[in-house]
Amino acid sequence: MTSAETTPSPTSPTSSTPSPTSSTPSPTGSTPRPTATTATEPAPGDRRRWFALAIVMTAAFMDLVDVTIVNIAIPSIQRDAGATFSQIQWITAGYALAFAAGLITGGRLGDIHGRKRLFLIGIGGFTVASALCGFAANPEMLVASRILQGAMAALMVPQVLSIVHATFPAHERGKVFGLFGAVVGLGAVTGPLLGALLTEWNLFGLEWRPIFLINLPVGIAGLILGSRYITESKAPRALKLDLVGVALVTLGLLMLLYPLTRGRELGWPLWGYGSMAGALIVLGALVAYEKRKAARDGSPLIELPLFRVKSFAAGIAVQTVFGVALGIFFLVWTLYMQFGLGWGPLKAGLTGIPFSIAVSTAAGLSVQKLVPRFGRGVLQAGALVMAAGVLIYLWEAGRYGLAIAPWQMALPLVVMGVGMGLIVAPLTDAILSEVPREHAGSASGLINTVQQMGNALGLGLVSVVFFGSIADHLRPEQVGPAFVDAFQNALGWVVAVMCAIFLLMFALPGRPAQHIEGAADDPRPTPEKQPELVA
């Protein structure tokens, strides 16, 4: 499960009353991007807006479930489709990479060409990609279809909060954003369980395929109803697209991730090291290009001056590294339970329930009670608590070996869940607290993007930290112990990452009250007053 992947900040802009033409939500974050919009304040009595809300919420739920549903079915995919372990990594990492690379572009396309239009294109493409995944004839087709699915999600998801903002009057948005948070939590819990049930039931002898095919009726209904009930809105003064920036980001990540994922399988060829070194050159070229583009037309993909804000730069590092930790853990956890311990998908899915409950509970407490009182210390405590939970899990995996039971995993999973909940809920607001408010939307979109990129990098690193400690040829009786040992090795890496996150958090503001505690005034500037960061 990757519940933090698209989790909006619980302190979304609900305490203020924005002007209907002052801002639009960022691609996936809860903080709006300061752009004008053509939509007028909707009439309170218009019931169509609630149909529109149900449609976009269902689409968001479908995306969240699809992210978390796949992990639990991976062993079944590997056995039925004959996928290699590197292909399994790309089934998850390919989606995350395409999603991350397209988030900001998807949001800007909606601003320029209309959010309803882009939402319908996204949900239609997502449905087609889901069908291609479900009917994939081989692992290569499944990987390609998952990449397409991630790209279509990048068109669909950024429009959700933008449509909500354009459809609902300001005084109703607090209730609506609260509903969105509930949908996020429900999707995070439902995905693994639904994936486990669909895989276990083996409907019509289709094995794992129903986890993708279930999207078809939902997507078709969303496409038909969305075209009727969603009101079109756009931002006529939106920024231009930065396709070169998107291409450089994607190329750099591919040059880094591909050799990491395939390197062990291919014997770590020299070209792999060359590719990873070349990735640094490409990313350096990205920085140089973004500087020039900012000076030329003011519409870069990445606003580099934001990194001069100490807390933002450190927060981006925290978000990226945290994504790496989550990418590593959730994939190796599934492989450990189903390949190493030989558990079925339903047993593995049910084992994760204590974790999900702990994350949700701690997230609510951290924002409402703890962070306003203790500030940054809550996030740092979360990193240490999560590391402690991983250490307990590591000890139990070694102590009980193949005989470990789900109830014995409950303690480390609850501890880890509490730690994660203390981090994921307030982290976005802590990162944004010292960013000029007029740039909070761009910063928020970048936060979501780098977290997805970190997740993709973590999935790629599984080849090193997990499969790197497993021999190439194992007898059947050696598989279980080898996977248990590899799981322990991967957990050691996760502990190290969480300690690094703890240290990086010292650069966050001690008490980020600006966003976490909220403000009575509208934090989003009107179009008449939008100062710029100086490059």
UniProtKB/TrEMBL annotation:
Localization in the cell: Cell membrane
GO molecular function terms noted in the UniProt entry: transmembrane transporter activity
Transferase keyword on record: no
Alphabetized Pfam families for the sequence: MFS_1
Stored CDD domains: MFS_MMR_MDR_like
Chief localisation class: membrane
Keywords for the protein's UniProt record, in alphabetical order: Antibiotic resistance, Cell membrane, Membrane, Transmembrane, Transmembrane helix, Transport
Record field: transmembrane: 50-74, 86-106, 118-137, 143-164, 176-198, 210-229, 241-258, 270-290, 311-336, 348-365, 377-395, 407-432, 453-470, 490-508
Membrane topology recorded in Swiss-Prot or TrEMBL: Multi-pass membrane protein
A GO cellular-component term linked to this record: plasma membrane
InterPro entries to which the protein is assigned, alphabetical: EmrB-like, MFS, MFS_dom, MFS_trans_sf
GO biological process, alphabetically ordered: response to antibiotic
Top-level taxon of the source organism: Bacteria
Residue ranges of every copy of the Major facilitator superfamily (MFS) profile domain listed in the record: 52-514
Residue numbers spanned by region Disordered: 1-43
Protein name (record): MFS transporter
Species for this entry: Streptomyces ferrugineus
Matches recorded under PANTHER family: ACTINORHODIN TRANSPORTER-RELATED (PTHR42718:SF39), MAJOR FACILITATOR SUPERFAMILY MULTIDRUG TRANSPORTER MFSC (PTHR42718)
